[in-house]
Write a structure and sequence with these properties.
This protein is mainly alpha-helical and 119 residues long. The chain has 2 domains: 29 residues; 86 residues, no CATH class. The protein is built from 6 helices and no strands.
C-alpha cells in the first residue's frame, strides 16, 4: 500500500503488528492453535463463498449452509478457545460420539462432492 493509505505511519503499524504477534505467544497461551485454525477457516470460507456467488443452482445452498456453520463455529471457538478443549474432551468420553461426529463430517464431504457433479 502506498503512502496515501497510511502516511508516514507504515513503519509504526508494522512494529505494532509484529509486537502483537510476538506478545500473543506470551500473554495468550490459551490454545493458540485453535485461533489459528479459526482464522484459516475464515479465510477459506471467503473463497468458497465467492465461488458460490451468483450461481443459480439450488445445490449451492448445501455448500453455503455448511460454510456458514463453520464460520459460526470458528468465530465461537476463536473467541473462547478453551471451549474447544471441552468439546474434544466431551467427544472422546464415549466412542459413539466421535464416530457420529466423524460420520457426519465424512457424509457432508461426500454430499458436497456428489452435488458438485450436478452443476
Amino acid at each position: 500500500m502506498g503512502e496515501a493509505d497510511f502516511g508516514d505511519y507504515k513503519l509504526i503499524i508494522g512494529f505494532v503488528a509484529l509486537a502483537t504477534a510476538l506478545l500473543s505467544f506470551v500473554f495468550v497461551p490459551d490454545f493458540l492453535a485453535v485461533r489459528g485454525l479459526a482464522m484459516l477457516i475464515l479465510l477459506w470460507s471467503r473463497e468458497v463463498l465467492d465461488s458460490a456467488f451468483l450461481h443459480s443452482s439450488v445445490n449451492r445452498l448445501v455448500l453455503v449452509t455448511i460454510v456458514y456453520f463453520l464460520i459460526i463455529a470458528s468465530i465461537y471457538f476463536g473467541a473462547w478457545p478453551y471451549k474447544m478443549r471441552g468439546l474434544i474432551d466431551w467427544l472422546f468420553q464415549q466412542t459413539t460420539r466421535i464416530k457420529i461426529f466423524g460420520f457426519s463430517a465424512a457424509l457432508s464431504g461426500i454430499l458436497i462432492t456428489l452435488l458438485s457433479f450436478t452443476y
